[in-house]
TrEMBL record:
This is peptide-methionine (R)-S-oxide reductase. The lineage of its organism: Bacteria, Bacillati, Actinomycetota, Actinomycetes, Kitasatosporales. GO terms for molecular function: metal ion binding; peptide-methionine (R)-S-oxide reductase activity. It comes from Streptomyces pini. Keywords: Metal-binding, Oxidoreductase, Zinc. GO terms for biological process: protein repair; response to oxidative stress. Pfam families: SelR. GO terms for cellular component: cytoplasm. It catalyses: L-methionyl-[protein] + [thioredoxin]-disulfide + H2O = L-methionyl-(R)-S-oxide-[protein] + [thioredoxin]-dithiol. Residues 9-133 form the MsrB domain.
Length: 135
């Protein structure tokens, strides 16, 4: 599938840190409770760390106590791409940036969180960049 932002592995390796590359380009996962945005309450927009696309807004972030930043809805449904992930002996739904194809995390449904969507977008901090709201 073609993405608006299409770079070679070599280009991505030059632009991203090893940890960012592992998560964003190799679908890795940062260790639970270690991410920069796990407990962040700052108002702003969460962008893709690889391409800068707007992915999530702080008003959809909630405390899920799972160890990673959690959101109940993307900023725009076309901002993310959802793919079936059958790795690690599970069936999950992978969340990728629709603009550059970078791995962000997974979305889980029906867990009973008191959110408007009953969805938990479990996103790696290292795949995001927070642009704080001015004011």
């Amino acid at each position: 599938m073609g993405y608006e932002i299409d770079k070679s592995d070599e280009q991505w390796r030059q632009e991203l840190s090893p940890a960012e590359y592992h998560v964003l380009r190799e679908a890795g996962t940062e260790p639970a409770f270690t991410g920069e945005y796990n407990h962040t309450k700052t108002t702003g927009v969460y962008q893709c760390r690889a391409c800068g696309a707007e992915l999530f807004r702080s008003d959809t972030k909630f405390e899920s106590h799972c160890g990673w930043p959690s959101f109940f809805d993307p900023a725009d449904s076309s901002a993310v791409e959802l793919l079936e992930d059958r790795s690690h002996g599970m069936v999950r739904t992978e969340v990728r940036c629709a603009r550059c194809g970078s791995h962000l995390g997974h979305v889980f449904r029906g867990e009973g969180y008191p959110t408007p969507t009953d969805e938990r977008y479990c996103i790696n901090s290292v795949s995001l960049k927070l642009a704080p709201e001015e004011g």
